[in-house]
Amino acid sequence: MKAWTYRKGLHDLGNGLYAYLQPDGGWGWSNAGLIVDGDRSLLVDTLFDMNITRDMLATMTDATGLKPGDINTIVNTHANGDHTHGNGCCEHAEIIASEASAREMEQVTPKLMAQMIANAPDMGDIGAYFASIFGMFDFAGVVERAPTRTFSGKLSLKVGDKEVKLIEVGPAHTAGDVLVHVPEDRTVFTGDILFIDGTPVMWAGPVSNWVKACDAILAMDVDVIVPGHGPITDKAGVRRVQDYLRFCDREARKRYDAGMSVRDAAHDIALGDYSSWTDAERIGVNVSTLYREYAGRLHEPANIAETFGLMAELKRGRAH
Question: Which domain holds residue 265?
């Protein structure tokens, strides 16, 4: 595998494919991709607000001559705003997402995020934590563009002469995660099925679907794997994510069966080598989701205030 550097900006993957990376890959600092062939183009995800998306698009213009208004298609790999809130920067693009993602995008809007940031000073430790991870983004300035085309399962597209395969593997990280596979270029853009050197966060589950999604990537004939967060990776990186998911499942299940609460279990799990990954406090989300899965309650929405409160507590504990 090529030794890719992890620096902010556009990385030329060859043959009209690009990755745009945002170190350190923590909360909100997501990756995107660009596929170009002839006069056709496809953008894999936008960024968390329109300002940083415009910066990314300007970098892409410098490298390719492609202007934002020229982009034909956007594929949103899932519903989270750090992969969708910049859609409005490409006014003419068709926007494709899974049906499940399109529904989920309606729930956590940039307006809601802006309100939570504004109210953060009155929300105690939860507000301070929320502001610390999201306060640098301009949610108030987001002009939303929802998907214009949805699908379930699989969808094949053409970008010029390139075949691009969209493969729905959610619910896993979110309700409708999608992989973007470019077979002839041996490349896959994974969205947040992969966090590399950062802690995966399981909003939806079940964990078995996420493990299977990793298996799907491992079965592909690919050399270049662009994660949703973190540096460009290879199949060893996929296996590390899969190992973390299995670790969470194993450790959470033991504590669930022993009757421990979500809070106590999240504090009790020794992360070992995973403690060096960014945002290790996400173990709180993962335990909460796994507990709902074990109880047969994944259909019920998570309590966001409790979840962020637990993460704030875990992060504060790690700091001492």
Answer: 9-319
